[in-house]
Amino acid sequence: MSEQPPAAEHFDQWYSDMGGRSSGDGIKLRLLGLPDRVVSSSLLSWDGLAEVVEALGLRPGDRFLDLACGRGGYGMEIAARTGAELVGVDFSAEAIAQAVALAHRSGNDGAEFRVGDLAATGLPDASVDAVVCVDSIQFKPEVATFQEIHRVLVPGGRLALTTWEAADRSDERVPERIRAVEVRPALQQAGFVGIEVRDRPEWLSIERALWEEAVSLDPGGDPALRSFHDEGVRVLPWLDLSRRVLATATANR
């Protein structure tokens, strides 16, 4: 039986348990090197974020999509650095509610957030100049997702995504959803050109340290900390069996 991705309701509860800020956020911020203003739902480091920003090539006035934006921290940081306009899409209504609240608190009222799916964003054709997708493509790695990204990009628009791929796709110790990720062929089938998929082993080292700290914690009665601890227990056995990658590509003209 194939592994089913978590439903939106699962993530609604996950974000609700965080209450906007999780007890594990401090650990993530410290090990990822993120400032407190970047409310992260993923595992992209400060240095990794700089690489993503450079790859997107955004200019003031451009519009970009943060796909599977979570609480919106990465997208708002990219917008602040580039002067580009942000639209964030996530299938968790609770994540979107928290992103809207964060944008309001931080003075990013021009950011737009909406509920949508990786393969059904609800955005018009050719409506964004760039797309960023951080640590989420594994939840729906079908070609349809990459086709949707291509559809919403203007011709020549840029994509930057971060994810994990199995070092050996036949190794059943790696979760099925990670083994299903094959970024390069999916991007090719969706019509992208100029595809680069680069290993980032230093990101994997940071994540290993993060999850090792997570599993050493006593979560007590904190549901967010329990989730953080339990995720570390699940991830550590297969983490070194994966490749951490940054993929960039251009929508074909």
Task: Tell me about this structure.
There is one protein chain. The protein has 10 helices and 7 strands. With 253 residues, the chain is of the alpha/beta class. Helix 1 (8-18) packs parallel to helix 5 and helix 2 (25-32) packs antiparallel against helix 9.
How are the SSEs ordered, and which strands pair?
Elements: H1 8-18, H2 25-32, H3 46-56, E1 63-67, H4 73-82, E2 85-90, H5 93-105, E3 112-115, E4 128-134, H6 143-152, E5 153-166, H7 176-179, H8 183-190, E6 192-199, H9 201-215, H10 223-239, E7 242-251
Parallel strand pairs: 1-2, 1-4, 2-3, 4-5
Antiparallel strand pairs: 5-7, 6-7
Helix pairs in contact: 1-5, 2-9, 6-8, 9-10
Please tag this protein with its features.
Rossmann fold, 7 strands, alpha/beta, 253 residues, 7-stranded mixed β-sheet
- How far apart, in Å, are the first and last alpha carbons? 40 Å
Oligomer: single chain
CATH superfamily: Vaccinia Virus protein VP39
- Helix-strand topology string: HHHEHEHEEHEHHEHHE
Number of strands: 7
CATH topology: Rossmann fold
Mean pLDDT: 92
- Rounded to the nearest angstrom, the radius of gyration is 17 Å
CATH architecture: 3-Layer(aba) Sandwich
Domain count, please report it.
Answer: 1
Give the class from helix and strand content and strand pairing. alpha/beta
Percent helix among the residues?
40-55%
Q: What is the CATH domain class?
A: Alpha Beta
Q: Describe the main β-sheet briefly.
A: 7 strands, mixed
Strand content: 15-25%
Uncertain runs are none
User: What is the count of DSSP helices, taking H or I runs of 4+ residues?
Assistant: 10
- Kindly report the spatial arrangement of strands forming the biggest sheet: 3-2-1-4-5-7-6
What shape does the CA trace take?
globular
